[in-house]
Amino acid sequence: MEEDKVSLAGYFKDFGRAVKNGNIWTRLSLIIMGLGHLANGQYIKGCIVTAVEVLFAWVIALIGGTYWPKLSTLGTVQRKESFDPVTMTKKVNNFDNSLLILLFSIVGIVICFFFALYYIYNLKQIYKVQQAKEAGGHVNTFREDCREMVNGKFYVTLLGLPTMGVVLINVIPIVFMTCIGFTNYDIDHQPPTYLFTWVGLKNFQTLFTSSVSDSFGYVFIRILIWTIIWAVVATFSTFFGGIFLAKFINDKRTKLPAMWRTFFVITIAIPQFVTLLLVGKMFGNNGIVNGICSQIGLTDFLENIGLVSKGLGYIPFLSKPGWAHVMIILINIWVGVPYQMLSATGLLMNIPTDQLEAAKIDGASERQIFWKITMPYIMFVMGPSLVTSIIANINNFNVIYLLTTDYTTTNMRFATSHGKEVDLLITWLFNLTNNYSNFKMASVIGIITFVICVALTLLSFSRLVRGDREEEFQ
């Protein structure tokens, strides 16, 4: 952290030194960015840099003149149609589009941020060339600069395109989604027909409070608790299940280990969504499993002991709270354990045998060897994977959505907020946007989910994946 602060301070300090000690051409580059390059004989580079500055000025003039002035209100002129009896056509007024105003304003701000970094970098480069020229050193030509970008600075070239992709695909959508959470963008305020505007923290207040007419607070707490329970149980059940299964298959006393391993690997070969859809139908109210349970009398037995409502006629594996929660976890174990089994198999085969033999000679039991040598080694190596698995399960859309497509809540407070008892935050968010166009509340839920994932990641990596434990396993 201290090194980052020093590096950042040095970045701006070098810029200040260039402004203070630069010659007239370096200082004029503060206005026309390519002048310093032209004065130093780098004509092609100077023209390109000046063209970039002109392009930036044109884009910012377009965005700044059209969208930035309306950012504070997100538009005031609503779309209206009128019929012109002379031309017998419909005419539309010059209306504002709140969505485009917000989007292009964010794009403009991001462009300004990166251009500011490039602006500082460019002036520092001009000052370096000035110093080299004054000292009688060599000044690179444009061809030499290009050659350096594929040799000495090839890492910059390689990172350039991915960085642009991250900005376009991740940064801008995340900032845009976050901003939507502070507006009233919903089914009643959908552009281009209608406008939406800023509402501050009203949506967050709605999410964390509950009333007779608004039950978002009630539903949010329950879905959040289930999301955390699901993430923890789903992660650790498949994690330890895969380890124990790999341990069993690799045990010297196990017969035909290749056959057992093949049986579980076959489940990986089948696409997950196909497995989930098939299993969901099998455990449906009219599925084959319910038919078998009814024939053998299990359904009647469960009705008699009170686990199934009287007269229901089937076991609500995936259609009632409690039952559905348990079944989702069990089905996820079946789907997820083979993946972890393969990962754990590779780790178990790489544990140094001399450590295991030394432990046996010292009188350690199989259980002690497993918990004192095997598990610490696995946790050290698979720690990052475990953290990402927890985050992935918080956002595990497929398992929940595909298994609960026929689930209908009977709780009116859930129904009012368009949620279900088996929803995760991510599936609730999807339902709000896809089926009810409640983008404002979906955005708030997305922000909360993002904060939870970041907090868990930072906490887990700081505690579980520490760099000071490597010598312990050497």
From TrEMBL:
One of its GO terms (cellular component) is maltose transport complex. The chain crosses the membrane at residues 24-40, 47-68, 99-121, 154-176, 223-246, 258-279, 322-342, 377-403, 441-461. Residues 224-460 form the ABC transmembrane type-1 domain. The keyword Transit peptide does not apply. Its main location: membrane. The keyword Transmembrane helix applies. It is a multi-pass membrane protein. GO terms for molecular function: ABC-type maltose transporter activity. It comes from the Bacteria. Keywords: Cell membrane, Membrane, Sugar transport, Transmembrane, Transmembrane helix, Transport. It is found in: Cell membrane. Belongs to the binding-protein-dependent transport system permease family. MalFG subfamily. This is Maltose/maltodextrin transport system permease protein. It comes from Candidatus Weimeria bifida.
